[in-house]
Amino acid sequence: MSDVTRTRHARPVHHWRRDVVELAALFTAVAVADAVANLIGHGPDGPVLLVTSAVVLVATAGFHAWWARRPGHAPPAGDTGTRSSASRSAGLPEQSAGTADVTGPGALWRMRTTVKDEPGSLAALCAALAERRVDILSLQTHPLADGTVDEFLLRAPGPLSAAEITRAVALAGGTGTWIERADAHDLVDVPTRVLGLAARTALDAAELPLALRQLLGRCTIRSLPGTPVGGGRGPEPVPAEGVLEDTVMRLRAPEGGVLTVERAYLPFTPTEFARARALVELDGRLGPRIPRGQDVLTLPEGNDIAVRRVDTGDVAEAKAMHDRCSTRTLAMRYHGPVGDAGRYLNHLLSPRFGRTLAAQTPAGQIVGLGHLLWDGDETEVALLIEDEWQRRGIGAELLGRLVAMAVEAGCASVYAVTRASNTGMVAAMRGLGLPLDYQVEEGTLVITARLDSAPDASRPSLDIARAHLGDPAHRG
C-alpha cells in the first residue's frame, strides 16, 4: 500500500495483516532475548555481560536520539514523503523543488511562447525553467488552432539574461518566444486588471485607448472616421464582431468608423481580440461621458477661473472663443491659416482622441483650451488662450494639469508643436521642471518633455489630474 493511500484525508489507514506481523515479530524478539539471557546468565561472567550490554544499548539509543535532533539532519517541519513523491511524479528534477527563491531578489520578466498542444509540452517547458531557478509567478494560456500560446510572468535570478531564458525555452520546445522586462504592476492577476480597466473606461470615454494599450501592451491605436472630412470614400466596412489579421485588429468604433489596433512585434491571439472587443462594446453601450468635476483657479489679479473637462457638447462655446481670437494667436496654435474652426473642433474635443481642459469665466465663457491628444503611441499637448487672457498664467496651469494626466495615464513623454517665436508656450514647457528635448525644422519647434526620466519630486501633482478624472473628493 502506498504512502498516499495510507495518509488519505490526513488519517492513517490500518490493516489487520500489519497488526498480525507486528505481534509475531514481538513474540519472536521475546523468545530470542530469553534464550540469550539463559545462555549468558548461567556462565561465570553472565551478570557482568548482561549489565554491560544494557549500558551499551542505552548509550546507543541516547546518541541516536541526539543525532536525529540536530538541525542538519532533522527533517523539515511538516515534511512528508508524499510531497517528495508528488514532485518526482510531476517530472521535475528532485533538486529543483527547493532551489527557486520566491521571496528573494530577482528580475521580473514577461514571456510569451508557443508550444504544441499535446500532453507533456508545458511540463517540459516548466522543467527547463526550474533547472535555471526561474520561478513562474503566473501563467495564461491562449488556445490556437495548431498550438497554445503560453504567457508567463517570471522571476529569474538577477544574472540570468533574457537570451539564456529564451535559449532554455527553445530547447524545451517553445517557438516564437518573446520576452521583456516586467514590473510590480504586472503582479496583478489578469481578471483584476481587466476589471480595473473596464471601470476606468466606464467613468471616462477618453480612457478606452489607454485601456486597450494597457491590456494589449505596446501598440498603436488609431480611430478612423466613418466619413472623411470633405466627403470622399470612407474606410472599408468592418463587421460588427470585428476583424483579426495577425498583428492588426479592426473594431467597429462606438461613434462610427473604425478603431484599429496594431503592433509589430507579436501577433494578436483570439483571446486578446475577444477582450478588446468586450471593452469597445462596453464603451459603446455607455455612450458619451466625461467626468464633470471642476477646479477653481484664482489668478494673480484676483479673478476666479474654473478649469474643467469639456467634450463635443462644448463645441459651440469653443468655436465662439476661436472667433474672438486674433489671426496671430490662431496661427501660433495651428501653425498656419485657420479656416472654419468647426471642422476640426469636433475632433479635438472628442474624448476618443484625448482629453481637453477648458478655462471658463464665472459667466460661462471659455477663454482657454488645453488638449492632451493620443497620437498613435505618442502624446501631444496643445494650448490656445484668448488674447485678452494671455500672460496671466492660465496656459501654464492648463499645461501642468495636462502633463499630470499624462503621468497618470502612464505616458513616457509628451510633445508640443509650436513656432520658435511662441515664447509663451516655450516658457510654459520650461516651467514644468522636466527634461526637455528641442527640435527645430523650418521655423517649427517640437518640444518633448520626458516624463519617465524625471524625478518624482519634479512631476506635477497627480492630485490635480484626479480632480479632472471624476474623483468626487477633488470636485469643486
Overall number of structural domains? 4
Structural class: alpha+beta
Which architecture of the largest domain does the CATH hierarchy give at level 2? Answer: 3-Layer(aba) Sandwich
What's the total number of strands?
16
Share of helix, binned: 25-40%
Which radius of gyration do the C-alpha atoms yield? Answer: 36 Å
Shape: elongated
Q: Approximately how much beta-strand content do the residues carry?
A: 15-25%
| CATH third-level topology of the largest domain | Aminopeptidase
Unreliable residue runs: 1-14, 70-104, 454-476
| Average pLDDT figure | 75
Strand order, largest beta sheet: 9-10-11-12-13
Give me the number of helical elements.
Answer: 15
Q: Which CATH class of the largest domain?
A: Alpha Beta
Alpha-carbon distance between the termini? 74 Å
Describe the largest sheet. Answer: 5 strands, antiparallel
Q: What do we call the CATH homologous superfamily of the largest domain?
A: Gcn5-related N-acetyltransferase (GNAT)
